[in-house]
Amino acid sequence: MARRARVEDVGRLALAMPHVTVEHGSLGNPIYQVGRKSFVYFRTPSRDAVDPGTGERYPDVIIFWVPSQSDKLALVQDPESPFFTTGHFDGHLSVLLRGAHVGTLDIEELGEVVQDGWLCRASPTRARRWLADHRL
């Protein structure tokens, strides 16, 4: 069985993909990009992602790009899934995950989400090359 994922695995897995650069947001939050397109983004606290009990903004939201609306729905509609979305992200091909909930995923599951994000944001040539090298 694969080990449980940790928040630091997000960046490690993102950086393991080819041609990745890291930008930093206004509060130093990392934004992982391929070809200047973000695919994993550590978000700053925002008014649309709040604790329903306290109204406090979540301080640990991570955004992952997804390939399609159906992929997004599969992740956010599964009651067992830690992924969610907010109205702010309606129509945006991404899902949100609280850092506090990364450990509900194993390292392989987290790796798939990071890889899928990279694949949908990388150039078609880079994506084809990576798939040829890594898929059976």
Molecular structure report:
- It contains 4 helices and 5 strands.
- The protein is an alpha+beta fold.
- 32% of the residues lie in helices and 19% in strands.
- The chain is globular.
- Strand 2 (30-34) and strand 3 (37-42) form a beta hairpin.
What is the spatial order of strands in the main beta sheet? 1-2-3-4-5
What characterizes the major β-sheet?
Answer: 5 strands, antiparallel
Shape: globular
Instruction: Output the structural class.
Output: alpha+beta
Helix content: 25-40%
Number of helices: 4
Radius of gyration: 15 Å
Percentage of residues in DSSP E strands: 15-25%
The count of β-strands is 5
**End-to-end CA span:** 21 Å
Mean pLDDT: 95
H-E order: HEEEEHEHH
Poorly predicted regions are none
Secondary-structure map:
Layout: H1 7-15, E1 20-24, E2 30-34, E3 37-42, E4 61-65, H2 69-77, E5 94-98, H3 107-121, H4 124-134
Antiparallel strand pairs: 1-2, 2-3, 3-4, 4-5
Helix pairs in contact: 1-3
Compact overview of the structure:
The protein is built from 4 helices and 5 strands; from the N terminus they run H-E-E-E-E-H-E-H-H. The longest helix is centred in the last third of the chain and has 15 residues, at about 105-120. With about 140 residues, the chain is an alpha+beta fold.
Quick tags:
single chain, 136 residues, alpha+beta, five-stranded antiparallel beta sheet, globular
